[in-house]
Design brief:
- The protein contains 12 helices and 9 strands.
- The chain has helices at 2-5, 33-50, 75-86, 107-115, 131-136, 154-168, 186-197, 227-230, 254-261, 265-268, 291-294, 301-322, and strands at residues 64-69, 90-95, 121-126, 142-148, 175-179, 201-205, 221-223, 235-238, 277-278.
- It is globular.
- It starts with a helix and ends in an 8-residue tail after the last helix.
- Bound molecules: phosphoric acid mono(formamide)ester.
Length: 330
Protein backbone atom coordinates (compact mmCIF):
# COMPACT_ATOMS: atom_id res chain seq x y z
CA UNK A 1 0.00 0.00 0.00
CA UNK A 2 2.58 2.65 0.83
CA UNK A 3 4.31 1.95 -2.47
CA UNK A 4 1.08 2.79 -4.28
CA UNK A 5 0.64 5.77 -2.01
CA UNK A 6 3.63 7.42 -3.61
CA UNK A 7 2.74 6.73 -7.22
CA UNK A 8 3.58 9.84 -9.21
CA UNK A 9 1.33 9.17 -12.17
CA UNK A 10 -1.98 10.93 -12.64
CA UNK A 11 -3.95 7.82 -11.71
CA UNK A 12 -5.13 7.81 -8.11
CA UNK A 13 -3.65 5.20 -5.79
CA UNK A 14 -5.96 2.39 -4.68
CA UNK A 15 -7.87 2.76 -1.46
CA UNK A 16 -6.64 -0.50 0.03
CA UNK A 17 -6.32 -0.62 3.81
CA UNK A 18 -3.28 1.33 5.00
CA UNK A 19 -0.50 -0.58 6.68
CA UNK A 20 -0.71 1.64 9.76
CA UNK A 21 -4.24 2.47 10.90
CA UNK A 22 -4.12 5.97 12.34
CA UNK A 23 -7.53 7.45 13.10
CA UNK A 24 -5.91 10.35 14.94
CA UNK A 25 -2.34 11.14 15.99
CA UNK A 26 -2.39 12.52 19.51
CA UNK A 27 0.83 11.16 20.95
CA UNK A 28 3.52 8.51 20.53
CA UNK A 29 2.55 6.98 23.86
CA UNK A 30 -0.48 5.57 21.99
CA UNK A 31 1.58 3.87 19.24
CA UNK A 32 3.52 0.61 19.13
CA UNK A 33 7.10 0.33 17.88
CA UNK A 34 5.80 -1.41 14.74
CA UNK A 35 3.37 1.42 14.03
CA UNK A 36 6.13 4.01 14.46
CA UNK A 37 8.39 2.00 12.16
CA UNK A 38 5.60 1.80 9.58
CA UNK A 39 5.15 5.58 9.64
CA UNK A 40 8.91 6.13 9.29
CA UNK A 41 9.11 3.68 6.39
CA UNK A 42 6.35 5.53 4.56
CA UNK A 43 8.05 8.85 5.36
CA UNK A 44 11.19 7.51 3.64
CA UNK A 45 9.12 7.04 0.48
CA UNK A 46 7.68 10.52 0.86
CA UNK A 47 11.20 11.90 1.20
CA UNK A 48 12.07 10.31 -2.13
CA UNK A 49 9.09 12.13 -3.64
CA UNK A 50 10.40 15.40 -2.19
CA UNK A 51 13.69 14.83 -4.01
CA UNK A 52 11.95 14.66 -7.40
CA UNK A 53 11.71 17.59 -9.76
CA UNK A 54 7.90 17.54 -9.44
CA UNK A 55 7.35 17.22 -5.69
CA UNK A 56 3.67 16.42 -5.85
CA UNK A 57 1.37 13.41 -5.53
CA UNK A 58 -2.33 13.25 -6.41
CA UNK A 59 -3.03 11.13 -3.34
CA UNK A 60 -5.16 13.52 -1.25
CA UNK A 61 -6.86 15.37 -4.10
CA UNK A 62 -10.25 16.53 -2.83
CA UNK A 63 -9.20 16.31 0.82
CA UNK A 64 -9.09 19.49 2.93
CA UNK A 65 -6.63 19.92 5.80
CA UNK A 66 -7.30 22.60 8.43
CA UNK A 67 -4.28 23.85 10.39
CA UNK A 68 -5.66 25.22 13.66
CA UNK A 69 -2.73 26.78 15.48
CA UNK A 70 -3.53 28.52 18.74
CA UNK A 71 0.17 28.85 19.64
CA UNK A 72 2.95 30.29 17.49
CA UNK A 73 4.85 28.02 15.13
CA UNK A 74 7.24 28.30 12.22
CA UNK A 75 8.41 24.78 11.41
CA UNK A 76 5.40 22.65 12.36
CA UNK A 77 2.74 24.77 10.72
CA UNK A 78 4.70 25.43 7.52
CA UNK A 79 5.69 21.82 7.09
CA UNK A 80 2.17 20.48 7.71
CA UNK A 81 0.82 22.94 5.14
CA UNK A 82 3.54 22.06 2.65
CA UNK A 83 3.01 18.36 3.30
CA UNK A 84 -0.71 18.70 2.60
CA UNK A 85 -0.02 20.60 -0.62
CA UNK A 86 2.55 18.03 -1.75
CA UNK A 87 -0.24 15.44 -1.43
CA UNK A 88 -2.60 17.69 -3.46
CA UNK A 89 -4.88 18.45 -0.49
CA UNK A 90 -6.49 21.86 0.00
CA UNK A 91 -5.36 23.80 3.08
CA UNK A 92 -7.39 26.02 5.41
CA UNK A 93 -5.07 27.99 7.64
CA UNK A 94 -6.40 29.32 10.96
CA UNK A 95 -4.46 31.93 12.87
CA UNK A 96 -5.47 32.52 16.49
CA UNK A 97 -4.24 36.10 16.66
CA UNK A 98 -6.61 37.30 13.93
CA UNK A 99 -9.53 35.02 14.82
CA UNK A 100 -12.67 35.32 16.94
CA UNK A 101 -10.88 33.46 19.73
CA UNK A 102 -9.79 36.98 20.70
CA UNK A 103 -13.50 37.84 21.17
CA UNK A 104 -13.95 34.99 23.62
CA UNK A 105 -15.17 32.19 21.32
CA UNK A 106 -14.26 28.80 22.78
CA UNK A 107 -11.95 26.31 21.11
CA UNK A 108 -14.81 23.84 20.63
CA UNK A 109 -17.13 26.44 19.12
CA UNK A 110 -14.29 27.57 16.88
CA UNK A 111 -13.58 24.02 15.77
CA UNK A 112 -17.27 23.21 15.14
CA UNK A 113 -17.71 26.35 13.04
CA UNK A 114 -14.62 25.57 11.02
CA UNK A 115 -15.75 21.95 10.67
CA UNK A 116 -18.99 23.23 9.14
CA UNK A 117 -16.87 24.46 6.22
CA UNK A 118 -15.92 20.86 5.46
CA UNK A 119 -12.30 20.09 6.35
CA UNK A 120 -11.44 16.39 6.49
CA UNK A 121 -8.41 16.56 8.78
CA UNK A 122 -7.52 19.01 11.53
CA UNK A 123 -3.96 19.68 12.68
CA UNK A 124 -4.08 21.47 16.02
CA UNK A 125 -1.49 23.15 18.19
CA UNK A 126 -2.67 24.39 21.56
CA UNK A 127 -1.13 25.50 24.83
CA UNK A 128 -3.34 23.18 26.87
CA UNK A 129 -2.33 19.54 27.23
CA UNK A 130 -5.17 17.35 25.99
CA UNK A 131 -6.72 19.91 23.60
CA UNK A 132 -6.29 17.61 20.54
CA UNK A 133 -7.92 14.70 22.38
CA UNK A 134 -10.79 16.97 23.46
CA UNK A 135 -11.27 17.96 19.83
CA UNK A 136 -11.73 14.32 18.79
CA UNK A 137 -14.80 14.21 21.05
CA UNK A 138 -16.45 17.15 19.26
CA UNK A 139 -15.57 16.84 15.57
CA UNK A 140 -15.79 14.02 13.05
CA UNK A 141 -12.48 14.81 11.33
CA UNK A 142 -9.20 13.02 11.84
CA UNK A 143 -7.20 15.04 14.38
CA UNK A 144 -3.41 15.36 14.35
CA UNK A 145 -1.57 17.05 17.19
CA UNK A 146 0.94 19.71 16.27
CA UNK A 147 1.91 19.95 19.95
CA UNK A 148 -0.22 20.40 23.08
CA UNK A 149 1.01 22.06 26.25
CA UNK A 150 3.54 19.98 28.13
CA UNK A 151 1.95 16.77 26.81
CA UNK A 152 3.36 15.67 23.42
CA UNK A 153 4.55 16.84 20.02
CA UNK A 154 4.20 13.55 18.18
CA UNK A 155 5.28 14.59 14.68
CA UNK A 156 8.41 16.18 16.15
CA UNK A 157 9.15 12.88 17.89
CA UNK A 158 8.61 11.05 14.60
CA UNK A 159 10.84 13.37 12.58
CA UNK A 160 13.54 13.14 15.24
CA UNK A 161 13.37 9.34 15.14
CA UNK A 162 13.42 9.46 11.33
CA UNK A 163 16.53 11.68 11.34
CA UNK A 164 18.27 9.50 13.92
CA UNK A 165 17.41 6.37 11.95
CA UNK A 166 18.91 7.92 8.82
CA UNK A 167 22.11 8.74 10.70
CA UNK A 168 22.49 5.69 12.95
CA UNK A 169 20.48 2.90 11.31
CA UNK A 170 18.61 0.80 13.86
CA UNK A 171 18.08 2.67 17.11
CA UNK A 172 17.97 -0.52 19.20
CA UNK A 173 20.45 -0.15 22.06
CA UNK A 174 21.64 3.28 20.92
CA UNK A 175 22.27 5.79 23.71
CA UNK A 176 20.39 9.00 22.96
CA UNK A 177 20.89 11.99 25.28
CA UNK A 178 18.09 14.57 25.59
CA UNK A 179 19.33 17.65 27.44
CA UNK A 180 17.77 20.85 28.75
CA UNK A 181 14.34 21.95 29.85
CA UNK A 182 12.75 18.51 30.17
CA UNK A 183 9.98 19.78 32.46
CA UNK A 184 8.32 22.04 29.90
CA UNK A 185 9.13 19.99 26.82
CA UNK A 186 6.45 18.12 24.88
CA UNK A 187 9.26 17.26 22.45
CA UNK A 188 11.09 15.42 25.24
CA UNK A 189 7.98 13.42 26.11
CA UNK A 190 7.31 12.36 22.53
CA UNK A 191 10.95 11.41 22.08
CA UNK A 192 11.12 9.43 25.29
CA UNK A 193 8.06 7.43 24.23
CA UNK A 194 9.01 7.15 20.56
CA UNK A 195 12.71 6.38 20.87
CA UNK A 196 12.02 4.00 23.74
CA UNK A 197 9.55 2.04 21.61
CA UNK A 198 12.22 1.77 18.91
CA UNK A 199 14.58 0.20 21.47
CA UNK A 200 16.85 3.19 22.18
CA UNK A 201 18.50 3.74 25.56
CA UNK A 202 17.21 7.24 26.35
CA UNK A 203 18.99 9.47 28.89
CA UNK A 204 17.61 12.86 29.91
CA UNK A 205 19.57 15.58 31.70
CA UNK A 206 18.77 19.01 33.03
CA UNK A 207 18.81 21.11 36.17
CA UNK A 208 16.95 19.30 38.97
CA UNK A 209 14.27 22.01 38.75
CA UNK A 210 13.66 21.04 35.11
CA UNK A 211 13.42 17.27 35.62
CA UNK A 212 9.79 16.30 36.27
CA UNK A 213 9.16 13.89 39.12
CA UNK A 214 8.60 10.34 37.86
CA UNK A 215 10.20 10.97 34.45
CA UNK A 216 12.05 7.64 34.73
CA UNK A 217 8.70 5.83 34.82
CA UNK A 218 8.48 6.68 31.11
CA UNK A 219 11.43 4.35 30.49
CA UNK A 220 14.44 6.68 30.47
CA UNK A 221 17.39 7.39 32.78
CA UNK A 222 17.46 10.87 34.35
CA UNK A 223 20.55 12.88 35.34
CA UNK A 224 20.82 16.21 37.15
CA UNK A 225 24.25 16.71 35.51
CA UNK A 226 24.84 16.72 31.78
CA UNK A 227 28.11 14.77 31.65
CA UNK A 228 26.76 11.27 32.44
CA UNK A 229 24.07 11.71 29.80
CA UNK A 230 26.56 12.73 27.12
CA UNK A 231 29.30 10.19 27.89
CA UNK A 232 29.36 7.67 25.03
CA UNK A 233 26.08 8.92 23.57
CA UNK A 234 25.35 7.98 19.95
CA UNK A 235 23.41 11.24 19.50
CA UNK A 236 22.44 14.28 21.52
CA UNK A 237 19.25 16.32 21.33
CA UNK A 238 19.29 19.75 22.94
CA UNK A 239 15.99 21.28 24.03
CA UNK A 240 14.95 24.88 24.07
CA UNK A 241 14.75 26.60 27.44
CA UNK A 242 11.07 27.59 27.34
CA UNK A 243 11.13 30.90 29.13
CA UNK A 244 7.55 31.69 28.07
CA UNK A 245 6.24 28.74 30.12
CA UNK A 246 8.20 29.57 33.26
CA UNK A 247 6.56 31.43 36.08
CA UNK A 248 9.43 31.02 38.52
CA UNK A 249 13.22 30.91 38.67
CA UNK A 250 14.27 27.53 37.33
CA UNK A 251 17.92 28.51 37.05
CA UNK A 252 19.82 31.66 38.04
CA UNK A 253 20.61 33.00 34.55
CA UNK A 254 20.97 32.06 30.90
CA UNK A 255 24.73 32.35 31.36
CA UNK A 256 24.65 29.83 34.19
CA UNK A 257 22.42 27.46 32.23
CA UNK A 258 24.92 27.51 29.37
CA UNK A 259 27.84 26.99 31.73
CA UNK A 260 26.40 23.86 33.34
CA UNK A 261 24.13 22.38 30.64
CA UNK A 262 24.83 24.11 27.33
CA UNK A 263 26.31 22.06 24.50
CA UNK A 264 29.62 23.54 23.38
CA UNK A 265 32.37 21.93 21.34
CA UNK A 266 34.23 20.71 24.43
CA UNK A 267 31.19 19.04 25.95
CA UNK A 268 30.23 17.47 22.62
CA UNK A 269 33.51 15.51 22.76
CA UNK A 270 31.97 13.42 25.57
CA UNK A 271 29.67 11.83 22.97
CA UNK A 272 30.84 9.26 20.44
CA UNK A 273 32.89 10.79 17.61
CA UNK A 274 30.61 12.27 14.97
CA UNK A 275 27.48 11.90 17.12
CA UNK A 276 24.64 13.84 15.45
CA UNK A 277 23.39 16.94 17.25
CA UNK A 278 19.65 17.61 17.12
CA UNK A 279 17.51 20.52 18.22
CA UNK A 280 13.78 20.87 17.48
CA UNK A 281 14.01 24.65 17.18
CA UNK A 282 13.62 27.46 17.78
CA UNK A 283 17.08 27.68 19.34
CA UNK A 284 18.33 29.97 22.09
CA UNK A 285 21.83 30.32 20.71
CA UNK A 286 24.37 30.65 23.49
CA UNK A 287 21.96 29.22 26.08
CA UNK A 288 21.25 25.52 25.46
CA UNK A 289 23.52 25.32 22.40
CA UNK A 290 26.65 27.18 21.32
CA UNK A 291 26.42 28.68 17.82
CA UNK A 292 29.53 26.80 16.67
CA UNK A 293 27.81 23.50 17.55
CA UNK A 294 24.45 24.52 16.08
CA UNK A 295 26.19 25.40 12.81
CA UNK A 296 28.94 22.77 13.08
CA UNK A 297 29.59 19.59 11.13
CA UNK A 298 27.68 17.33 13.53
CA UNK A 299 24.52 19.42 13.49
CA UNK A 300 21.55 17.81 11.72
CA UNK A 301 19.13 20.55 12.75
CA UNK A 302 18.15 21.60 9.24
CA UNK A 303 17.90 17.96 8.15
CA UNK A 304 15.32 17.55 10.91
CA UNK A 305 13.33 20.37 9.35
CA UNK A 306 13.60 18.82 5.88
CA UNK A 307 12.52 15.43 7.23
CA UNK A 308 9.55 17.04 8.97
CA UNK A 309 7.84 17.57 5.63
CA UNK A 310 8.18 13.91 4.63
CA UNK A 311 7.08 12.67 8.05
CA UNK A 312 4.01 14.94 8.01
CA UNK A 313 3.15 13.77 4.49
CA UNK A 314 3.18 10.20 5.80
CA UNK A 315 1.05 11.10 8.83
CA UNK A 316 -1.53 13.07 6.84
CA UNK A 317 -1.69 10.29 4.29
CA UNK A 318 -2.19 7.57 6.90
CA UNK A 319 -4.85 9.48 8.86
CA UNK A 320 -6.69 10.30 5.63
CA UNK A 321 -6.43 6.70 4.45
CA UNK A 322 -7.73 5.41 7.78
CA UNK A 323 -10.77 7.64 7.23
CA UNK A 324 -11.14 6.25 3.68
CA UNK A 325 -10.17 9.57 2.12
CA UNK A 326 -7.08 8.67 0.08
CA UNK A 327 -7.31 8.52 -3.66
CA UNK A 328 -10.59 10.46 -3.80
CA UNK A 329 -11.50 11.53 -7.31
CA UNK A 330 -15.20 12.27 -6.96
N1 LIG B 1 9.88 22.33 16.51
C1 LIG B 1 8.79 23.13 16.52
O1 LIG B 1 7.71 22.74 16.96
O2 LIG B 1 8.98 24.37 15.96
P1 LIG B 1 7.83 25.44 15.77
O3 LIG B 1 7.36 25.86 17.15
O4 LIG B 1 8.44 26.55 15.00
O5 LIG B 1 6.70 24.77 15.03
Amino acid sequence: MPTDAVTQTGSPPPTAAPRVALRHLLGLEDLSGDQITGILDLAAQMKAVNARRIKKLPTLRGVTVLTLFVEPSTRTRMSFELAAKRLSADVMSFSAATSSLSKGETLIDTAKNLEAMGPDLIVIRHGAAGAPRLLTQHVGCGVVSGGDGFHEHPTQGLLDAFTLREKLGSLAGRKIAIVGDILHSRVARSNIWGLGKLGADVHVAGPATMLPAGIEDMGCTAHARVEPALEGADAVMMLRVQRERMDGGFFPSAHEFHRFFGLDEERLKLCKPGAPVLHPGPMNRGVEIAPEVADGPQSVILEQVENGVAVRMAVLYLVAATHGLDGRVD
